Amino acid sequence: MLMLKNLKQLIFSVEMKKKKRERNNNIILLQASYELFIGLNVILWRKRHRLFSLISAVSGCLLLLLFAFSVFTPPPTATEHFLSHHLSAVKKTEVVESNFDMVFQVPASGGTLGRDLWSSSQSKFYYGCSNASKSFQSADMKTHPNRYLMIATSGGLNQQRTGIIDAVVVAYILNATLVIPKLDQHSYWKDTSGFAEIFNVDWFISSLSRDVEIIKELPRNEGKAWIPRSMRVPRKCNSKCYQIRVLPVLNKKHAVELTKFDYRLSNRLETDLQKLRCRVNYQALRFTDSILELGKILVERMRMKAKQFIALHLRFEPDMLAFSGCYYGGGEKERGELGALRKRWKTLHVSNPEKVRRHGRCPLTPEEVGLMLRALGFGSDVHIYVASGEVYRGEETLAPLKALFPNFHSKETIATKEELAPFSSFSGRMAALDYIVCDESDVFVTNNNGNMARILAGRRRYFGHKPTIRPNAKKLYKLFLDRNNMTWDEFASKVRTYQIGFMGEPKEVKTGKGEFHENPDSCICQANGLKTPQEDDESSKERKEGAGVSDEQQQQQQQPLEEDPDWTDIFYLDKELPDVITKQEHPEVEGFFSD
């Protein structure tokens, strides 16, 4: 109370000084106007009253305008805003500094939100479904002899994974035999691993044997090697596109290799082809036994530390930040360091960091991820497994996140050097270990919208809608910038509001929207006999609105429609990928940003 009284007295004294200063200004203005009036009259007297009537009118109007301005100008409103702003701060018992700025205090506890942070309340209503329909032709019925398709993938492990998935579907479209895809060994990652050193080849071939014929290498033609025709198709090429562009060449040359095969297949496909995508992704692509074994060990060690844990895919490499053109408040030092890296790509336009961040294209900082998680309800006792490459400025950048979540782990901290030795020289195999732990985590979080984030988001939807938190970067960036001007409760409330629709719940993304690997909606079915809470609400509303409808009509409304979940209507809208790299001609760095 004493503090409030002193604050009111201070504000009152400020207002009194303002009013006194305004009265003095008014007197000065009146005196100046009067002197101007007298001066003009003297001049007119000397000029023997020439134009006396006109000048007198002008001077009189000027005097009246000055007087009206001084009288009717409203007082400043800043003081009132200042007072109300800080009285609310006093009521909330926040610490008030001499400049009256409120202190942004982050609690150690996540608080009680009245909901389960570790599971989706609606996951029981949905399940993954990717079986082929009865009309889907098997490989032995449709594969043409002497028609071989080869694929050269592009990018990091997860981008290559999308290429492998789509390669199987393209082989089916072309009635061709697929040769085991070649992995990218020449991009930024410089990983010499072949397909068989990351994925289980025999399982891949056998599990897809009814869908597509797959062989390990191109056979010889009458004792001679086939010479495949190398070609590249446009991004988002649909079934008709492949039949027009590739099939004639395949019929003539018998062997075709599609290069840089990443995102070369459209989202807009018939349902059976989408389900084939899911069978490849969620059943056929299995890591090698050695990768699976160590991945299982890493998960078990995390479970020994905590019953439930978060996995964070953190992308904050210096090269990626430089290429994106983002700025994180590090002053001239940051601009100099990232600017020097950015010069590697001479054709890049001058960056506009504010525009890039405003559009949600900048990865969240480790600190921002920590604040988001705390606002969502995760306390400092939660264990976090972090999957990341080199972090810009290393420990200095990670320190705020570690302060918020001290139980900070990675594959390097929970596995020995000896255990990691067979994998540490190969970025793809190391990424596969992170993939396994992130997939098995109770909550998966990402600070970006890269390939691993999208692939895992789709996988976790398919296998039970396990919580997957993607930051709503377009909304959150302003909140992070302005966080010191609000209380923690206000900040946390806004974070929870902005993150609605970005938490991995069912039906968050409209059917046909987004990348299919992130939202495999034609492979997710609703359990029979179960109604979601939304459907119960809609049914209740319909019953109320149908009070005046006949009994026969009400019965027709209440009867559920019998639909085959394998034949969901799909309306995919093709669009450019949101990543900055797809809008630039920089093939030498595209692999780096592909993860």
Please provide a written account of the structure.
α1 (2-46) packs antiparallel against α3 (78-91), α5 (157-173) crosses α9 and α10 (289-305) crosses α18. With 595 residues, the chain is an alpha/beta fold. The chain has 24 helices and 14 strands. It has a five-stranded parallel β-sheet, with helices on one face. It has a five-stranded parallel β-sheet with strand order 11-10-9-12-13. Strands 1-14 form a two-stranded antiparallel ribbon. β5 (220-221) and β6 form a beta hairpin. It has helices at 2-46, 52-72, 78-91, 139-142, 157-173, 201-207, 239-245, 247-253, 271-284, 289-305, 318-324, 331-342, 353-358, 366-376, 394-404, 411-414, 417-420, 427-440, 451-462, 473-481, 488-498, 533-545, 551-558, 587-594; strands at residues 126-128, 148-151, 177-179, 214-215, 220-221, 224-225, 229-231, 255-258, 309-314, 383-388, 408-409, 443-446, 468-469, 524-526. The chain crosses the membrane at residues 27-44, 51-72.
Low-confidence stretches: 69-101, 539-592
**How much beta, percentage-wise?**
5-15%
Q: Biggest sheet: strands, sense, closure? A: 5 strands, parallel
Q: Cα distance, first to last residue?
A: 57 Å
How many helices? The count is 24
Shape from CA axes? globular
Radius of gyration: 33 Å
The spatial strand order of the largest sheet comes to: 4-3-2-8-7
Based on the model shown, name its key terms.
48% helix; 595 residues; single chain; 5-stranded parallel sheet; alpha/beta
Topology readout:
Blueprint: H1 2-46, H2 52-72, H3 78-91, E1 126-128, H4 139-142, E2 148-151, H5 157-173, E3 177-179, H6 201-207, E4 214-215, E5 220-221, E6 224-225, E7 229-231, H7 239-245, H8 247-253, E8 255-258, H9 271-284, H10 289-305, E9 309-314, H11 318-324, H12 331-342, H13 353-358, H14 366-376, E10 383-388, H15 394-404, E11 408-409, H16 411-414, H17 417-420, H18 427-440, E12 443-446, H19 451-462, E13 468-469, H20 473-481, H21 488-498, E14 524-526, H22 533-545, H23 551-558, H24 587-594
Parallel strand pairs: 2-3, 2-8, 3-4, 7-8, 9-10, 9-12, 10-11, 12-13
Antiparallel strand pairs: 1-14, 5-6
